[in-house]
Amino acid sequence: MRNPLRSEADAFRFLLLTIGYFALIVIGAVINTWLGLAVFVVLTLVALYVAFIRGRDEAPPRVASTMSHPDDECRILVVANETVTGDTLHEMIKRKSEGCRENVLVVAPSQPSPLQHLASDENPARHAAQARLDASLARLREAGISARGEVGDADPVQSIEDALRTFGPDEVIISTHPEGRSHWLERGVVETARERFAVPITHVVVDTETQRSEVR
After folding, report:
1. pLDDT tens digits for 134-187?
2. Structural domain includes residue 2
3. pLDDT reading at 13 higher than 80
4. Cα(205)–Cα(174) distance, rounded to whole angstroms?
5. CB 123 within 8 A of CB 155
6. What are phi and psi of 15, to 5 degrees?
7. Cα–Cα distance, 13 to 25 (Å, whole number)
8. 173 has which bridge partners?
């Protein structure tokens, strides 16, 4: 949840408004009980309206990487699950690594089934994600790309935010299945990531059935 008190000034303003809110209610109640109740209802409705309008009109601040690294280093975050071994994805990683000292982190979000989630048994999904991740890292290292990996949060957007804070990528590559077969696209993962994170994001579509790929 986004904290509405983003600064000390906001917190101080909120404190003054809260004091004024209760003071007006008390004054109204001292004059007349029904007047106090009316003041309470009116002020509460006004506060809810202002909070709703502000929350709807103000976009949350975009999350950016706060970690520094050497100028000659390119930090690339790759987020993929079943498409993590795709050729086009690996070619894109190599292309993004040209002309700099690459530092690549591949995150494969764990994708437990609904039944596994309900049973709190996510180990099979994590083991499957780790196996795909190991195969992808092996191929990248064979191509001479310095890469490491980890199994991330089941929510790919949360995986990206975690990596922004701990890895500090210069850009992000998200790999998915095509439309119609990608749960991530159905959930709007790519669009949400582009709205939420202040880093360049490349979308690679890997069709594992037809062996076709495209970059968006």
Report:
1. 888 888 888 777 789 999 888 899 999 999 988 999 999 999 988 888 888 998
2. no
3. no
4. 8
5. no
6. -65, -45
7. 18
8. 78, 202
Cα distance between residue 151 and residue 81, in whole Å: 9
Q: Over the stretch 52-64, which tens digit does the pLDDT of each residue have?
A: 765 555 556 677 7
Q: Which amino acid is at 18?
A: T
Q: 31 lies in which domain range?
A: 8-57
**Is 106 found in the same domain as 22?**
no
- Residue 117 · residue 130 · CB < 8 Å: no
Q: Residue 88 corresponds to which tokens in the numbers above?
A: 């086009």
| pTM higher than 0.70 | no
Is 136 found in the same domain as 208? yes
Structure tokens at 136: 């992808």
Query: What is the distance between the alpha carbons of residues 110 and 102, in angstroms, rounded to a whole number?
Result: 25
Same domain assignment for residues 81 and 188:
yes
Same structural domain, 41 and 91:
no
Residue 30 pLDDT more than 70?
yes
For residue 154, the SS3 value is coil
Confidence at residue 203, expressed as pLDDT on a 0 to 100 scale: 94
Measured between alpha carbons, how far is 41 from 38 in angstroms, rounded to an integer? 5
Structural domains counted in the chain:
2
